[in-house]
Amino acid sequence: MQFTGFLRQEGAVFGPWRQNDAALHFGDWHSEYAALSTAACVLDAGQRTQIEVLGADRAAFLHRMCTNRVVGRGPGSGCEAFLLDAKGHVLAFARIFVTDSSLVLETAPGQSAPILSHLDKYVVRDRVEFYDRTQSWHPLRVAGPRAQDVLARLFGNRVPDRPLEHVRVEVGGLDAWVVCLSAGARPFWQVVSLSEPTGRLWSAIRQLGARPCGSLAAEAVRIERGEPEYGLDITVENLAQEVGRCDTAISTSKGCYLGQEVVARIDSRGHVNRRLAGLIFSTDQVPVQAMDVYGDGVTAGRITSAAFSPGLGVTVGLGYVRRDYWQPGQRLECSLGQVEVARLPLRE
Predict the structure, then answer these.
(1) How do residues 141-189 score in pLDDT, each as one tens digit?
(2) Which fold has domain 2-46+138-223?
(3) Hey, which of 92, 138, 263, 313 has its CA 20 to 30 A from 131?
(4) Domain 47-134+239-271 has CATH 3.30.70.1400
């Protein structure tokens, strides 16, 4: 609540956002969207789920609980991974970061309780401890082509520039954890202050030229980049391969893990019956909730996320499309008009 008041003083306009209120914009979300492609922006990401795993067996335990390789990764590295149930359904889609003394799971808001409950069930004699850091760690995101310059001026030349690399830096009394989330034309970093109030870190980034940015602009960029969010684009009804992150989130060479038999069976069969795809609408109207899309008079898929894209001038979305219809260029219909299936990312 204290940081919410701070953001209001910074000019944030708050409104309903998923299950909570969030800073939607700071006066003009279209210009904030443009700045994400041309300048540096700072965004509040304080609702993201953060779980720290401690203990001597942390790597071995999490290794057998997720789809990607954890054992053997050194401090400063990270990976994407799915947590599955025994039937191969996705319980979480997270980034896992390796530090000197712990592992950190970072994922969508509101996922602490189900993840902790799931992990606790499989602890037998493992020397592991789980800590929900969601309330105590308040991440900010710094994004845009000039974001690295801003962070370098704040933290020096130790800012990581490869996706999922991270470092802890101490400069001028500021102790922070800096993570490179993505590279490319619109790169994103995540920064958590471990010593100073989040408002001071925000102000320091702003003073170096970053403009504030809200959820509306960030959501449009997320969808354009094809980055699925658990709870929206991924639920327990999904199988891992349907999400389309096989190259980044699933290891085909690691040992046994929960749900592996289903993943291997799908690999041997060669395909799933639906998968996540990009969708480009013929309108600037945005669906207010998930909706079906149709082809040849039958249900061809379902839209899970959508936002207006100022860069493309139309609404864009993510959704699951059946195998007969998922080829890029395929034209489908929904209640708002025509929708075209497109390859992800829609824009870098």
Answers:
(1) 999 999 999 999 999 989 999 999 999 999 888 899 999 999 999 999 9
(2) Gyrase A; domain 2 (3.30.1360)
(3) 263
(4) yes
